[in-house]
Amino acid sequence: MKYEITGTTVPYVEMKLEEGKEVYTQGGGMCWRDENFEMVTNTKGGLLKGLGRVVAGDSLFMNTYKATANDATIAFASTVPGEIVHLELDENHPGIIAEKGSFLCAEEGVEFKVTLTKKFGAGLFGGEGFVLQDIHGKGHVFLEVDGNINKKTLKEGESILIDTGNVVYFDKSCSYEITTVKGMKNKLFGGEGFFLTKITGPGTVVMQSQNFHDFASKLAPYMPKGNN
């Protein structure tokens, strides 16, 4: 696959595929393409997997684009201002755990499934930390980042605490849990919520500077209400 990530505000990835190669995305993810593609829409893996994607913030149906000629060109754009991250999964990098809604597009050999936090109660009230995506397989995958990206490599036993909405992904070699903010006054008046995601190395963790859910909540008071 030949690809190029372009743009600084709302970026897009444009790729060229050889004949017979396939790439898939969630419904509405494609930005533009030439005529050298066949498109197939389905639940990709069955209804249960499709419903799992809905829980994880993606669409029930996925669109697969198969190139019918060499150098067929197709592009996928991010949905909010930020960045696009590229990963190539193989036997040396078997997979990642990503936040819900981060998936943009991938080659046909990449799969993902829903994974839940081990502590159900904490995850349920921890918002974004409750539902995560297990992305694995072999091939190229592209993820959306809200705002700017920050990557940190954790050593064995080293931990970092992250607001659940600011996690993009982390290696499967890392362990994770949802932990509470200490102190009742901190919980109630600190403005950081009740829960944080604790990720422990070894492995790489990628964070985003923008928590889109917080951003949307700040805009909500200014949105029109009712029929006005």
Question: What radius of gyration results from the CA coordinates?
Answer: 19 Å
Q: Tell me the fraction of residues in β-strands, as a range.
A: over 45%
Multimerization state: single chain
Major β-sheet annotation: 6 strands, antiparallel
Shape: globular
Structure commentary:
A six-stranded antiparallel beta sheet has the order 5-6-3-10-13-8, with no helix packed on it. Strands 11-12-9-16-19-14 form a six-stranded antiparallel beta sheet. The chain has a four-stranded antiparallel beta sheet with strand order 1-2-7-4, with no helix packed on it. The chain is mainly β and 228 residues long. The chain has four helices and 19 strands. It has a single domain, classed as Mitochondrial biogenesis AIM24 (Double-stranded beta-helix, 4-Layer Sandwich). The longest helix has 9 residues. A hairpin with a 5-residue loop joins β1 and β2.
